[in-house]
Structure formats: structure tokens, C-alpha cells
């Protein structure tokens, strides 16, 4: 395992390679601020790398590269190995991130402001979302069936949106005695959407009317169309280098798109694997993996069953169950890095550190290992031997001190099928914030580790 900061051992040539990789990563995430956008971009890239929609195939053979797009919210990429039944090497990440969603009836007027009603998605510190520039992304279906795609607030000429905060001069009675998580309350997450009224005395809500008129003119959207909309509020702006040495990356959505990106880059380099290789990008992890695009859904059975039915003459459900049981996975999610300001929440001997490589978590979960997958020693030994052989930089870490708190991943849902599973991803600072921070060294070493994992026998 890594025992010191990786930057100490890199040559200048390696540093240049790492920095180049980081630029490509930043560009990808800048264009993919939501799970839908990530899937759309990834599908195009899969096709460019020789992958075919599995629904266009009738049979499969060794070396075939296929993908499955599930409702534009999650996507699975596969390279067929020698014998699918012997098990699949899969890397599973999620592409949803904490955010604000719009309510079904989002637009209201108050004090001549047009406001958007929101409901937060996932675990956030609500106060972080106030008094900061925000962007609106998503899709809306119009009454005539037309699909409108929005991404407002990313171009430098776009307007942005913001949740108004209370000035410190007047916050004493309203906010100062609130607990930190309630400094801004859920119903106070109202988005400023306009302040210009129409000049029509016959209209009761003149500012709202101005906004609705503009939505109709620019996008064809009417108020009833919000019923069929899927609109998300995310931080406006791009990922940035952090630190005078540019060793870190700051920005939104790195939990967990840093793992999704590196796993994709890894599978693109796999050629004729002995074991079937799979990258599984799931949705809804941040809300407990609920819904038809999450890992709790039966998509793993559907996609693997489909693959087996296209390769096995006498396919049956038992073959599917045995294939799942023979499979091995990395539950690829980020973990908490040692925070130099809030060290007290960590166990210093059992915490991941920035720039120490891919971080393994034998288990995650809350107190008493509740809701955790506890990876077995035999599987960890397989991983260790593989990584040591290939000189992969990795570390072991935990989420925090015992009884301090905890978090979950999709590992337990993979383990439900009997898949050997361990959590493995880079450590980040400021997780679930609008500006998460990762290490460029960890980004690159995670990619290297995922590439080697596909060679696991």
C-alpha cells in the first residue's frame, strides 16, 4: 500500500501525462453536469470506441463490444469475454450527484419576484446552495410531444440563478440560533428567476407572466409543461485547478463521476479480455438507489440475462444466477479524505489521504457497520496480488471515526447477487458540496487501477 504522497515519486514525464489526463477529465465533466448529460455524452463516446447498442445485435461472441442505455439515466458498457458464465469483472459507479430539483409546479410570484420552488436531492448542506450562481439543466416535453433540452447558466453570456440569503446584519433572530443544517431550510431554497413585470394592469402576477411569456417565446414551454419536465439546479461554472501547484481539481459532481470517467477510460483500452468486462453506470445512488434506473432495479439481471441468452443455446435462470455469483466487482465510489482543518472526525490510522492513490474501503455504512457490505479476506487478497503485481498505487481507508457517522454505497446491492464486491475509489475533500476537491494523482491512479482490474482472472 502507498505510504507517502505520490507526487514525491513521479518523474516530470509522468506529471505531464497526469496533467493531460486531468484536462480531459475536466472537459468531460464540464459538459456533463447531470446524469442525463453524462449518459448522452458517454453513449456517443462508446459508439466512437466501437461499441454497439446491444438491441441491434442478435448474437454475441468473444470480443464483441456492446452497450445498453437505460432510459437515458444510466448506461452499461460490456466487452464479451471467453465465457460469460464464468463471471464478469464489473466496475460500478453512479452518475447522479446532490442537487436541487424543481417541484412539479415550480413557478410562483412573491414581492414581484418570480421564484422557482425546489426540493433538494440527496445529502446536502442546504446553506451551501444560497448566495451562489446556479444553472438550470434538464428536459421538458411540450404538449405536442417535442422534447426541449435546457442548459442555462453555463455559457458566459447566459444568465444564472441564485437562492437569496439573509444579510448578516439582520440574521440574528432568524438564522443565528438555528443549527447549521437548518441555517437555510428546505422551503427557503427558492430560486430567483426574474424581477421584471409585464406592463399590464389586467394581469395579477405580472412578474410571473413576464417569465412565462419568455419561456413560451424562447423554448415553447407553457406552465402545464412543467408536469412532464425533469429539471435540475446545479452549480454554474467549470471545474478548476486548485492550488498554486495545480495538483488538485475543484468542482461539482466529482462524487461520483470521477469514478465513472476513469472506468470508461479503462474499458476503452481493454482488448479481447479473457473475462467479460463491464462498466455499469447507475443512477439514484444519492437517494438510496430507489427507482427503475438504480442498482436496486432488476437491470443487472435484465442486461446479463440478455447477454447470456445471446450466447447460450440452453439459457435458463440458473445460468444467470451462477454468472452473477461468479462475478467480481469494484463498487467505485469516492471516500472521505483526511481533512486538514477538521481532523477530529477521522481515525488517523484508518483514513484515506489525497494523493495516495485509489482508496479501498473494506466496508462503509453507519454505526455498527449497518447497511454495509463487508468485503471478505479472500477477495481482498486477490485484489492485492493483482495490484502489487502491476505496481498499482492504492491505500486503505475508512469513512470516519466509529460513531462519528457514515455513508453508504451501492456495494450491498451488488453483494445481494453474490457478487464479490469491495468499495474502491479516490478520496475527496468537501464531498457533497458545490466544489468538491480531488487529487490529479488519485484521478490517474484510479484509472490505472481500474484498467488492471479488468485483467482479474
From TrEMBL:
Enzyme superclass (EC): hydrolase
Cofactor: Zn(2+)
MF (Gene Ontology): aminopeptidase activity; metallopeptidase activity; zinc ion binding
A family per Pfam: Peptidase_M18
GO biological process: proteolysis
NCBIfam families for the chain: PRK02256.1 (NF002600)
Entry protein name: M18 family aminopeptidase
Native source organism of the sequence: Pseudoleptotrichia goodfellowii F0264
